[in-house]
Structures are given as C-alpha cells and as structure tokens.
Amino acid sequence: MTNKLAVFDFDSTLMDGETLEFFAQEIGIAEKVKSITDRAMRGELDFFESLTERVSFLKGLPVSKVDEISKTLPLMPGAKEVVSELKKIGYKVVCFSGGFRNATAYFAKELGLDGEFANILHVKDGLLTGQVGGEMMFNDSKGQMLKRLQTLLDVSVENTVAVGDGANDLSMFKYAAKRVAFCAKQVLKEKANVIITEKNLANILEYIK
C-alpha cells in the first residue's frame, strides 16, 4: 500500500483566524498584533522575529485564559469533512502551526488528526512570560519537518499534499506534489498548483485522489 501524507497549516487554514490575535483581543492589542501578522504572512518580515515580537506582547496573560480561548477558536468551514475524507482514502493528516500547542493539541483530537506540530508558550507561575519556543519558529521550519516526516513515514513527494495560506507555508511546497494555496497571500499563490479562494476546505477534495 502506498503511504500518503496531507499537511495543513492551522491559523487561517484549519482554523478561521489567527490564534495570536484571539489572545491579543483579551488584552486589547489585537490591531497591533494583526499588523505584524499580516506583514509576516505576506513575507515582508522574518517569521522568527515577528513571532517573538508578537508573543512578547502577551506577557502576564494567564495560561488558563489562553487554554480557554484556544478551545473556542472557530474551525474553518469544511475542516472536519476534509480531514475525514482524506483519512478514508488512506492519507495520514497532520497539522503544522507557527502558532501554539494550546490550540493544535486540542483541535487534533476534535478533527481526528494523526499528529500536530506547533510552538510552546513559556509559562511561569500560571502566567505567560512573553517567550516562546518549539518546532515551528522559523521561515523554513514547516518544510524541514515535512521532509523528516516523509522519511519517517516513507512517503514520497508525489504522495504529499501541503495546504497553507501564508509565507511561512512556502517551505512545505518544495516537498509536496500537490501545493494548495487556501484563501492565501499572493506570495503563496505564486508557488501553488491548486488555488482555493472560497472559505471551504472541502473544495480541496476535488483536486485529490
């Protein structure tokens, strides 16, 4: 049997919005964070620098509030359907996120994902310290992780699907035959061979065997 792998970004792909912006709303700095996120997703800022700057604004936010918000994030229309259908036709379905495990670990269970890789917010005495670490910190992190998973699971580039919306998803496209730009920034559309403009992930299914 041929092994197949589908990798989805989380923020603005599996989930309708940006996790960091939902956290920022709690402390009244959503617009400040959004402007940095938008520039990073267009490829105008280094992802590591933009991530660490945005997380620094969250210092002092209780982790209990972070976990509470994480569980109420809105899923993208079609998210459950696309995961379920891909699994039925033999795909391992994984999430890569430049966001945080507070959200991805919860939604991996909700969606039935086979795995999730994300960053971790540092917590001390129940409060965010404003620092972050993890597996998805850099511009090329998703591509590097995809390559490692392909080796581990014995999946070829030809049998890999990558789905994302922003510049930090570009590195995945190098290792995927099916490169899906979902409601994406121009920088990603230019490298995609499937472009979905409607907010419904189930539309991807017509391009995948």
Strand content: 15-25%
| CATH fold label | Rossmann fold
Report the major sheet.
7 strands, mixed
Average pLDDT metric: 96
Counting H and I runs of at least 4 residues, what is the number of helices?
9
Total domain count: 1
CATH superfamily: HAD superfamily/HAD-like
Structural class: alpha/beta
- Radius of gyration over alpha carbons? 16 Å
Explain what the structure shows:
There is one protein chain. The chain is α/β, with parallel strands linked by helices. The protein contains nine helices and seven strands, in the order E-H-H-H-H-H-E-H-E-E-H-E-H-E-H-E. The chain has a single domain (4-207), classed as Rossmann fold. The chain is 38% helix and 22% strand. A seven-stranded mixed sheet has the order 4-3-2-1-5-6-7, with helices on both faces. Helix 1 (19-26) runs antiparallel to helix 2 and helix 2 packs antiparallel against helix 3 (47-56). The model has no long low-confidence stretch (mean pLDDT 96).
Write a concise synopsis of the structure shown:
With 209 residues, this protein is α/β, with parallel strands linked by helices. The protein contains nine helices and seven strands, in the order E-H-H-H-H-H-E-H-E-E-H-E-H-E-H-E.
Question: Notable features of this structure?
Answer:
209 residues, alpha/beta, Rossmann fold, 9 helices, 22% strand
Question: In terms of topology, how is this protein built?
Answer:
Elements: E1 4-9, H1 19-26, H2 30-41, H3 47-56, H4 63-70, H5 79-88, E2 91-100, H6 101-111, E3 115-124, E4 127-134, H7 141-153, E5 160-164, H8 170-173, E6 178-182, H9 186-189, E7 194-196
Helix pairs in contact: 1-2, 2-3, 4-6
